[in-house]
Amino acid sequence: MNTDPAVEAELDELARLVPGARLVTDPGIVAGFLHDQVTALPAGSPRGVVMPRSTDDVVAVMAWATRHRVPVVPRGAGTGLAGGATAIDGSLIVCLSRMTTIREIDPQNRVAVAEAGVITADVDRAAREVGLMYAPDPSSVELSTIGGNVATNAGGLRCVKYGVTRDSVLGVEAVLADGRVLSTGGRTIKNVAGYDLTGLLVGSEGTLGIITSATLRLLPAPPRDPVTLVGGFPSLVAAASAVSAVVAAGLRPSLLELLDHATLRAIDDWKHLGLSGTEAMLIAQFDDADADTHAEQVTALFTAAGADDVAVSSDPRESAQLLEVRRLAYPAAERLGRCLVEDVGVPVSRLADMVARIEQAAERHGVQVVTVAHAGDGNLHPTFVFDSPDGAVPQSVWRAADDVFHAALELGGTLTGEHGVGLLKQRWLPDQLGPVGTAVNRAIKDALDPLGLLNPGRGI
Ligand SMILES: Cc1cc2nc3c(=O)[nH]c(=O)nc-3n(C[C@H](O)[C@H](O)[C@H](O)COP(=O)(O)OP(=O)(O)OC[C@H]3O[C@@H](n4cnc5c(N)ncnc54)[C@H](O)[C@@H]3O)c2cc1C
Fold first, then answer.
1. Are residues 306 and 352 in the same domain?
2. Given CB 3.0 to 4.6 Å as the disulfide criterion, which of 43, 156, 328, 446 pairs with 34?
3. Per residue in 383-393, pLDDT tens?
4. Range of 188's domain?
5. Residue 432 forms part of a structural domain
6. Is 454 a member of any domain?
């Protein structure tokens, strides 16, 4: 891959510096590391991939990268949906997937310390062994890494009740661009010493430091299996008003998801579940001791909002089946064509307006869109479906996305609720941050990464 003798000499030096790490330059293998899930974006040609085994390895890698001015692309499992781990020309990809040790589970303080490459669900499984849980549950929970989740401030289905990844991170260990190790936070609930550097690194998309481990907050595991409700609605507006009613009633479901008609039709075309006549569907779960009472209240609210029928189950197998419809949404969309998954967020009260604006954008530009939403968070995933011989995103899709992003901002929302800016949304970011916000973001980046080596051109 690298025929330049100077580059080869630098890579030989790196291999000597991190003998325990895996350094890959074979083009066939490196090809598997060029993209995250956004394969429609063009990737550069990296020098290789290094897979460190320890924080010390990462320190050596970053000192080397600084010495030779090599840009670095941090990477976890590559499940990202914003192009944040897309390879850069001449870069070194630093893949943390071999740092898989859960260093500690501390039941007394309800804390876990996990290395960056630990799979998210493994932290939860380890916590459950001592009666605790790790709350963040992106749908990619069985694939994504803790480092990737922290770097993107990942959300998930349960965050309507338990918050996003940031709410579960008490501290991080990160290697800075020059190879210094920064440890932030700790295992105390309260901590106001200095600026909130933990908060700064959470969601920094690999642009401020390489996260090598995180100290994570654990919660008591729910006392029971969840009660699941599924309501079919005659219109999206009816479903959105049911969401508002649930929020206004002060109820705290552990999950509240919305599927639009196009999504239901896509699932039905595939699985024939009889969903096509339903205009919108809400799925809710309660996992607290009063779950049955709450389910009754929500059934009444769904019905008052116009739900045609509401199915309720507390049987774990039936619950899983009801939730399966939500899990089928993305693979069902993928059957229709190539997908560009978007991720806007609006205040919950503007949910119906946002869905209407998505539909208008799709119609105006003649593109196909299917939408699911973490409705309780006002976080929508309009997925643009397209066909193009070379895999590139057609201009009509970009124009529809442009409308959708500006609609989200007009409604008081955000370009991205949980996937991050990555490479995908950079051109719209100044529209949200404004000139002062952009300048402050840039100043922080310059202070921590003056040579611009950490994931340059991504995030801010
Ligand atoms: C089927 C599916 C479902 C999904 N569902 C959700 C969901 O419900 N909620 C949600 O929020 N996301 C979801 N995602 C998106 C994705 O899983 C998350 O963004 C996840 O946090 C990415 O983790 P990763 O380990 O794959 O990171 P990667 O994709 O490898 O990287 C993501 C970003 O983080 C940076 N990064 C990775 N590791 C580190 C590190 N150790 N230090 C510094 N920077 C790093 C990368 O440079 C990149 O910018 C889903 C993706 C898929 C494919």
1. yes
2. 43
3. 999 998 888 89
4. 102-220
5. no
6. no
Does one domain contain both 252 and 396? yes
Last residue of a domain, one of 72, 95, 118: 95
φ, ψ (nearest 5 deg) of residue 44: -85, -175
Ligand 1 in contact with 458 (CB < 6 A)? Answer: yes
- Ligand 1 midpoint to CA 310 (Å): 34
Structure token pair of residue 21: 């790490």
Domain CATH code at residue 246: 3.40.462.40
446 by Cβ neighbours in 10 Å (0-12 / 13-18 / 19+) ranks as exposed
Best residue for ligand 1 mutational test, from 33, 38, 75, 157 (most atoms within 8 Å of Cβ): 75
Cα–Cα distance, 268 to 277 (Å, whole number): 10
Q: Count of domains in the chain?
A: 3
Selection from 222, 254, 226 nearest residue 158 by Cα? 254
Residue 123 Cα to ligand 1 midpoint, Å, equals 16
* CA 93 to centroid of ligand 1, rounded, Å: 15
Structure tokens at 343: 């991720």
46 lines ligand 1 (CB under 6 A): no
Assigned token pair, 267: 């699932």
Q: Looking at residue 391, what is its pLDDT?
A: 84
pLDDT at 233: 96
Same domain, 106 and 30: no
Q: For residue range 374-415, what is the model confidence (pLDDT) as tens digits? A: 999 999 999 999 998 888 899 999 999 999 999 999 999 999
Place of tokens 């009660």: 227
Beta bridge partners of 22: 51
Whether 255 contacts 283, CB under 8 Å? yes
Secondary structure letter of residue 394 according to DSSP: P
Q: Is the CB of 78 under 6 A from ligand 1?
A: yes
237 lies in the same domain as 375 = yes
Residue 2 has a pLDDT of 62
What would the mean pLDDT of 340-352 be, rounded to a whole number? 94
Q: Is the pLDDT of residue 250 over 70?
A: yes
CATH number at residue 211: 3.30.465.10
Q: Are residues 155 and 261 in the same domain?
A: no
Q: What is the mean pLDDT of the chain?
A: 96
Percent of the chain with pLDDT over 90: 92
- Do residues 72 and 42 both lie within one domain? yes
Q: Is the CB of 147 under 6 A from ligand 1?
A: yes
Pairing mode, if any, of strands 210-217 and 181-183? unpaired
Same-domain pairing of 86 and 125: no
